[in-house]
């Protein structure tokens, strides 16, 4: 009788989920009679979610998309939805949504969705739910794996519950018979460093030594970031010597980490010295290297150095990301160099990257102030052509410009 009752309950749940899917799938179709592919559903869901604030509609959109954590774009949609629901304090909706998904047949093939739901609970700051989901994995027919442990440690770090990270790391491997791997240790190192307790990582490295587990470049990159953040420069030197001990050559990744950390401390000149050292040793910088330095010098008000680095970057054949362009345009406007800002803005727009409305308005106002009204109007025309969302606002701004 118990088995029959359980089967009937599962059948009822499947029918409920199927009915819910049929009722919501039309949300994504936009009246099209042709069935959407899974990728088209995901893209439609992402587009709808960007402007949706109603929690129930957010959930309907996600259900209609039939998302899976195996696809990168689907994970982006999951994350956006959970962020919006969390901001709306719709925590019951988050819980109900994720618990329902655990019963979806295609998500029960392995523990991937369970691990992903743990991370999503962490993103929503629902730490108790994340821990309970891990503990109840066996109820869903999955063992307590190292992948799930790593997901939980990551979730707790996202939620900034560093005390729980430490407790879970100390207690759960033994309690659930899990052997930590390198990813486990790196996640704990990251949490300790984020919490301002970088010195505790020395004990983690000692434990890794006892287990004959070798830290990698990421381990040391995380530790360097932590010590720079805490301005413990002697420890930075110690860590650099440790990389030699473990046979890890300071490559591009570690150099970029150090340069970014120095720039965040407004010590961009030291970051530039590191870049010069890289070049002399034959370590080729990439676009990220230059972007860190450009941002750093901009924040310190040294726009001339930022412009020089941007020019060097282009001359080396490196391709700046959109944020590098936007950063320069913003700070050049702040510094009153509207002509250079206009050149860089045009270069950005040629690549299809248009700075935010606030940055663009600052540039328009600045150009008008230096009697470059024609250039300002031309810029507005290009923006209106590319983006229709703020056309009315741009029409108002254009109407207010000197004739």
3D structure, described in words:
This is Pentatricopeptide repeat-containing protein. It comes from Melia azedarach (Chinaberry tree). By secondary structure, this protein is mainly alpha-helical. It has helices at 2-24, 26-29, 38-51, 55-65, 72-87, 91-101, 112-123, 127-135, 146-158, 162-175, 182-194, 201-210, 217-229, 233-245, 252-264, 268-280, 287-299, 303-315, 322-334, 338-350, 357-369, 373-386, 391-399. Helix 1 (2-24) packs across helix 4. The longest helix has 23 residues, at 2-24. The model is unreliable at 1-25 (pLDDT under 50).
Quick gist of this model?
This protein is mostly helical. It has helices spanning 2-24, 26-29, 38-51, 55-65, 72-87, 91-101, 112-123, 127-135, 146-158, 162-175, 182-194, 201-210, 217-229, 233-245, 252-264, 268-280, 287-299, 303-315, 322-334, 338-350, 357-369, 373-386, 391-399.
Number of DSSP E strands: 0
In angstroms, what separates the terminal alpha carbons?
A: 85 Å
SSE string, helices as H and strands as E: HHHHHHHHHHHHHHHHHHHHHHH
Q: Helix content range of the residues, please?
A: over 70%
| Unreliable residue runs | 1-25
Rough shape?
A: flat
As a percent range, the share of strand residues is: under 5%
Radius of gyration: 26 Å
Number of helices: 23
**Average predicted local confidence, pLDDT:** 89
Largest sheet: none
Structural class comes to: mainly alpha
Protein name: Pentatricopeptide repeat-containing protein
List key phrases describing it.
single chain, 403 residues, mainly alpha, 23 helices, flat, Pentatricopeptide repeat-containing protein
């Amino acid at each position: 009788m118990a088995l029959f009752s359980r089967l009937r309950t599962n059948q009822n749940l499947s029918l409920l989920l199927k009915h819910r899917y049929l009722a919501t799938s039309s949300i994504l179709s936009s009246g099209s009679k042709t069935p959407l592919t899974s990728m088209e559903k995901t893209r439609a869901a992402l587009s709808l979610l960007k402007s949706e604030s109603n929690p129930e509609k957010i959930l309907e959109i996600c259900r209609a998309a039939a998302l899976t954590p195996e696809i990168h774009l689907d994970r982006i949609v999951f994350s956006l939805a959970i962020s919006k629901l969390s901001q709306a304090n719709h925590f019951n909706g988050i819980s109900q949504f994720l618990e329902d998904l655990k019963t979806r047949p295609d998500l029960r093939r392995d523990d991937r969705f369970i691990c992903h739901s743990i991370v999503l609970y962490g993103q929503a700051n629902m730490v108790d739910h994340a821990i309970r989901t891990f503990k109840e994995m066996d109820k869903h027919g999955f063992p307590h794996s190292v992948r799930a442990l790593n997901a939980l440690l990551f979730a707790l770090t996202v939620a900034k519950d560093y005390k729980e990270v430490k407790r879970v790391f100390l207690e759960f491997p033994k309690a659930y018979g899990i052997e930590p791997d390198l990813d486990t240790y790196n996640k704990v190192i990251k949490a300790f460093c984020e919490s301002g307790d970088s010195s505790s990582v020395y004990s983690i490295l000692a434990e890794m030594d006892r287990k004959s587990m070798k830290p990698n470049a990421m381990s040391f990159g995380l530790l360097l970031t932590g010590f720079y953040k805490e301005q413990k420069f002697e420890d930075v030197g110690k860590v650099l010597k440790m990389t030699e001990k473990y046979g890890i050559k300071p490559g591009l990744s570690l150099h970029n980490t150090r340069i970014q950390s120095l720039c965040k401390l407004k010590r961009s000149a030291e970051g530039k010295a590191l870049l010069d050292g890289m070049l002399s040793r034959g370590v080729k910088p990439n676009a990220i290297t230059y972007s860190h330095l450009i941002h750093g010098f901009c924040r310190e008000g040294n726009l001339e150095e930022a412009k020089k680095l941007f020019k060097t970057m282009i001359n080396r054949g490196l391709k700046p990301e959109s944020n590098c362009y936007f950063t320069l345009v913003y700070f050049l406007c702040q510094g009153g160099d509207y002509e250079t800002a206009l050149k860089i803005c045009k270069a950005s727009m040629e690549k299809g990257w248009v700075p935010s409305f606030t940055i663009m308005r600052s540039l328009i106002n600045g150009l008008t102030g230096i009697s470059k009204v024609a250039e300002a109007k031309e810029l507005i025309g290009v923006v209106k052509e590319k983006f229709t969302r703020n056309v009315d606002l741009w029409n108002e701004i254009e109407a207010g410009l000197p004739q």
